[in-house]
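ok, trying the design again with the full structure, not the truncated one.
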């Protein structure tokens, strides 16, 4: 007899490709499989908003680099990147709401 699965994917997105690399959680430093970690991209504003608005009016281009962060599951839940879902909503693929 086998154990029942909580999630069909076992919490990962690797499919059947064997092992994937590991990344460190940005918050706690835990090593997490790359396909299991939650990836968050954000843009970093280097110039203050009011100054940037004036510079854009004069035709200047203001670069804003993207910052990539990886979170382990527990940190992603803590920072409300992930929500804990009921068994019924876990079965519905991709529908978080």
């Amino acid at each position: 007899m086998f154990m029942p699965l909580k999630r069909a994917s076992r919490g990962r997105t690797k499919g059947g490709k064997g092992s994937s690399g590991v990344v460190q959680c940005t918050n706690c430093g835990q090593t997490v499989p790359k396909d299991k970690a939650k990836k968050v991209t954000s843009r970093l504003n280097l110039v203050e908003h009011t100054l940037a608005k004036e510079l854009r009016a004069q035709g200047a281009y203001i670069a804003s680099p993207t910052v990539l962060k990886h979170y382990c599951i527990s940190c992603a839940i803590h920072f409300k990147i992930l929500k804990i879902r009921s068994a019924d909503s876990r079965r519905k693929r991709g529908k978080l709401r």
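Keeping the full-length input from now on. The CA atoms of residues 4 and 68 lie 35 Å apart.
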